[in-house]
Structures are given as structure tokens and as C-alpha cells.
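Predict the assembly for these two chains.
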Amino acid sequence: MLGKEIKYLVGKEIRLELKQKYVINGILLYLMSTIFVTYLAFEDIISVETWNSLFWIILLFVAVNGISKSFAQESPARHLYYYTLASPQSIVLSKILYNLLLMTILSALAFLFFMLLMGNMVVNMPLFLLALLLGSLGLSSILTMVAAIASRASQNFSLMAILSFPIVLPLLATLMKVSSTALRNLEWSGNTGFIVILLTINGAVIMLAYLLFPYLWRD
Amino acid sequence: MRLYKKLRQTNKNEMKKYWWKYLSGILLLYAVIFGFIVDVPDTMIEQTMRNLFFHVGMWFGMFAMLFTGFIYSLRYLRKFDEKEDVVAMEAVNVGMMFGFLGIFTGMIWASFTWGTPWVKDPKLNGAAVGLFIYLAYLILRGSIEDVHKRAKVSAVYNIFAFILWIVFVLILPRVSGAGLHPATGNDVTPVLPMHMDSGMRTVFYPAMIGWILLGCWILQLRIRIRRIKSKFNDLLT
């Protein structure tokens, strides 16, 4: 029952998005322009550290921009309609899954564009892609939950940023550590601790979102 | 004579309710005096080991306050009673105060032990992130006008924030690599530092209890002030 609801809801989100293309176009433009600005700012070959930090900072801002609109787009009347149809748990899980899909596509595009303009510095590709995937999952779940909370407060972008940055900081720090080893050498061994951390954060946030969202949804 | 007896009677009633406040004052006074008298083991950080009674004690006070806030947020979500939301908010306020003091005493300790007030260490970063999360909670509360909506949304965020605080401050520093602060990485010391000798323990445990009781006292005072303010506002409007 839950699975079917989630499947329909994710399909609904995708179809809405493809119809209007409002969020996607805006975010893609934001992504391209920020990467282009960094390309213009750094004239020659940059160090590995800089590549790493720039990539993740850009991805963070793209994520905050993209996911902040996920609860704000539909009117309260539409939300009331969904409230009568589906359970709140499936709504929040479907939003997390949809945002995960969005983040995976955005991070892949960001990576490709980054490689094109700033050069490919990744040595251990599978590890980097794993970091991208776990990072997309983490950013999507945290930012979806924070967007749900912020949507009940004033419709303010800065509130969403303020709420999300402290929670995202440890996730981002761990992701940067994992990807910096992926940029340097082909070793997998030293990173198991970090991957455990990423999985812990992801699991805890998703579980909390699942448990707490019904209280937010009732209004 | 009768007046004198009446006064004695009221004092006895008070003592039944307020004994723990007197106890907190006595315990902290004991900690401050004996904290500087008791022998400390001869380690690299010499006399600054005494900061343990204050820095770690304050963090335990903070943990107790944030846990109180967590419990009262859960209770609010069950019954939607306004009073419990007030307790949760004030508990976070007192916890923040202890947190800032804890970081400040930690910085004093760090500039002696490691040469600089702040280092890049998982526990320190986790503590800073924890403080930011709760500061964001206070900002969230400030941004919502409607009382019931504010209480509900901030209760949800408080529960979210507490679990994440535990993860970032207590769990992550253990799991990530070794750092300078005790209890990071593969450091064997559990949460309560066990490499104290028995002399220090006689001061540490009472000090910890004293800090927690002090936190409860400040919390109670703040709740009372808030109740009086809200009653005053109700009378005016």
C-alpha cells in the first residue's frame, strides 16, 4: 500500500515537473552560470583541494535552491487534497525520492560540466561516484525535511538556508574527505569509516523525517 | 512568639520544595573550592586538568537541558499543551548558555594545551555544529507568528535537532579519525573520562550533579518569568 502510493506520488511529481519545467530550467541555469563563473575566476590549472571544495560548495547551493521549492510550489488547497488521499509518510518518502532523483541528475550534470571546464582530476572514479550518490541522498533527505519545516513558517528562502546549513555541514565535510581521497589515489581502504558516517547520517535523517512529518502535515 | 513559630513553620515548608537549590549551590561551592585543592595526577597538562570539573560539568548540564527540551517537545506533540512548549524553549535557551560557557572554557583550556583556542577536530566541529543547529531553532521560533503553529513546528524541529545533536557531538567524533580532543577516533576513554584518579572523582561527580541542578534552577526561574510575562500580556489585551 505504501509502496504503491509512493510510486504514484513520485510519478506525479515527475509529470508536474516535466509539464512546467520551472524548477529544472532555473536550477540548470544556476548550475551552469556558477560553474562558468568559477571557470572564469580561476585562470589556470587549480589544485586538487580547490577543485574539490568548489565542486561541493556549488553542489550545495544548487541543492538548496532546487529543493527549497519542493513544498512551496503547490497551493495549500492542493495540499489539503493530497492530505485526504495519501498517508503523510508516503508523501514525505515520495518527495525524498523525487528530490534524490533530481539531485542525482544535477550532480551528474555538474560533474560533467565541471570536468569540461575545470579539467578531470578524479583518479578513483567509482569511489567518487559513490560519494556523489551518497551525497545526493543525504542532501535530498535533509533538505526535504528542512523544506517541509520551513514551508510551515514564512515562505522565506533565507530561513531555509539558515535551518539547513548547520545540519548539512558534517555531511559536506565527510563528503569532501571521501572525494579528496578519490581525487588523489586509487585506495578504497581508508574510507570505510567515512562511508559508515554518511550512511548513518542518511539513515537517521530519513527515519526522523518518516516519523515526524505527519505532525507537520496536519495543518 | 506565635509570629516566630509561624516563620519557622514556613521555612520548613520551603526547605521541602527548595532543598535541591540549596544543594546545587553547596555542591558548586564545594566544587570550586575543592577543585583547586584536591591533588591532580601529574600529566602533561598539569594543573589545567582541574578545568575538567567545570568544562565537562557544563557540557553535562547542557546535555541534561537539551534532553529536557527533547522530552517536553515529545510531550507537546502528544497533548498539544502550551505549557510544555514553553518549557522546551526555555530548556534550549539554558542549554545554549551552558554550551557557550562550555566552549569558552574549552577555548581557555585549549590555548594552554594545544597552543591555540580552536583546532580542526571532529569533536570541536561537532560541538560547533550542534550549537548552530540550536541557534537555528531559536531563529525558527522567531520567524513564526501564530502561537500554535510556532509551537508545533518548533517541537518537530527540536526533536530532529536533538537526535542530530547526539549524532554529531557524541557519535561522529568516535567514528571519524583520531583527533586531539579526548573521546575521538579510537581513543579508549568512554564518555566519562576514566583516567581520573579517585581524588578527582570525589570532586567531579558532585560538581556534575551541581551543574545539572543549577541548570534546572535557572530553567525554573526562566519558565516562571515567562509565565508572568504572558499573564501580564493577557491582562493588557
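Residues 23-39+48-236 of chain B form one domain. The helical segments of chain B are 2-35, 52-79, 82-113, 122-143, 147-175, 198-236.
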